[in-house]
Amino acid sequence: MRTLVVYYSLTGMTRTVAGMIATSLSADLEEIACSDYKPGFLGYLMAAFDAWRGHRPAIAPLRYAPENYDLVIVGGPMWAGHIATPVAAYLAALSGRLRNVAFFLTHGGAPPEKVFLEMKSLSGALPRAVVSLREAEVRKGAHAMRASLFVDALLADQPV
Ligand SMILES: Cc1cc2nc3c(=O)[nH]c(=O)nc-3n(C[C@H](O)[C@H](O)[C@H](O)COP(=O)(O)O)c2cc1C
Fold this sequence. Notes:
about 160 residues, alpha/beta, Rossmann fold, 6-stranded mixed sheet, 6 helices, 6 strands, about 40% helix, about 20% strand
């Protein structure tokens, strides 16, 4: 199974999770780059405002074409109760073109369900599996068990 993991990360949490998932699945790894947001108070304010208003920023050209993969796993951080805008831009650009997808999310503790619904609606695809991980879990390295259950579900071709 050819697998692509695509993610955006502003402060590194999602990058850690994406790397682990990609390694476990021997997947290609694509980081979405977006120059609109920088770490720091003003950057966070702009990111939250853009997420709240549903802005779709420009993202840098991508290395990998998702059409060439059997499974595409897309992840990002939650911003202001939404998926981070660079991920929203990626999913919206590929709307209807992703057949076999799974989603992951990192967040500070807010309920993730609405964000997964948003990702589903943006992509027009029903995810085979989803997992949300708290930033605090990732910082402590306590996310490994749930991340591997997500990977196992994908490998077993079982919805979770
Ligand atoms: C602009 C901004 C908005 C955020 N909004 C939320 C939120 O609404 N709910 C939440 O639980 N966490 C929120 N967070 C926390 C992030 O989702 C969390 O720290 C995430 O793991 C960061 O991922 P990253 O390090 O890959 O960028 C926010 C963080 C930022 C920077």
